[in-house]
Design brief:
Layout (H helix, E strand, L loop, with lengths): L1 H7 L11 H7 L32 E8 L6 H11 L4 E8 L7 E8 L5 H13 L2 E9 L2
Antiparallel strand pairs: 1-3, 1-4, 2-3
Helix pairs in contact: 3-4
Length: 141
């Protein structure tokens, strides 16, 4: 989507990080390749919008949350996915930058936030963590 926007703004100083395929589709030249700081770096692209997607039958839901900095807090937060048999497909931690030793967790789960069992699991998770933000549900490739 970013490459498409750049292609529509001819004569501008805009740039986008995108794929070779996006460059071909939109006729935008690649000005620099391999911009990652690690050889095996992979980039995940996302299109963010205000509208919510409907259920497709093959969905993922992305979320971020903050778990208390105490033994077992993350395990207790995530156990609802085990109990409800919801597949956790990605879990990444990043420093919160608020307090040393505190982390924000980004996760992807299989299923749509409107599905009853996913909705229940997310409500349960919200009661076990300091904060929860559902980033959205979308069809996965």
């Amino acid at each position: 989507e970013a490459v498409k926007i750049v292609s529509e703004k001819k004569n501008s100083s805009l740039a986008a990080i995108g794929t070779k395929q996006a460059s071909k589709i939109y006729g935008v030249p690649i000005i620099r390749k391999n911009i990652g700081d690690h050889k095996n770096n992979e980039t995940r692209f996302a299109v963010i919008g205000k509208e919510k997607n409907n259920l497709s039958g093959k969905d993922k839901t992305s979320l971020m949350f903050h778990a208390d900095n105490r033994p077992g807090a993350l395990m207790r937060a995530l156990e609802i996915f085990d109990v409800m048999e919801i597949n956790l497909t990605m879990l990444i931690s990043r420093p919160s930058k608020i307090k040393l030793g505190e982390y924000i967790f980004f996760a992807d789960i299989e299923g749509h936030q409107k599905e009853p069992k996913i909705k229940f699991a997310l409500e349960t998770l919200e009661n076990k963590v300091g904060s929860l933000k559902i980033l959205g549900s979308y069809p996965f490739a």
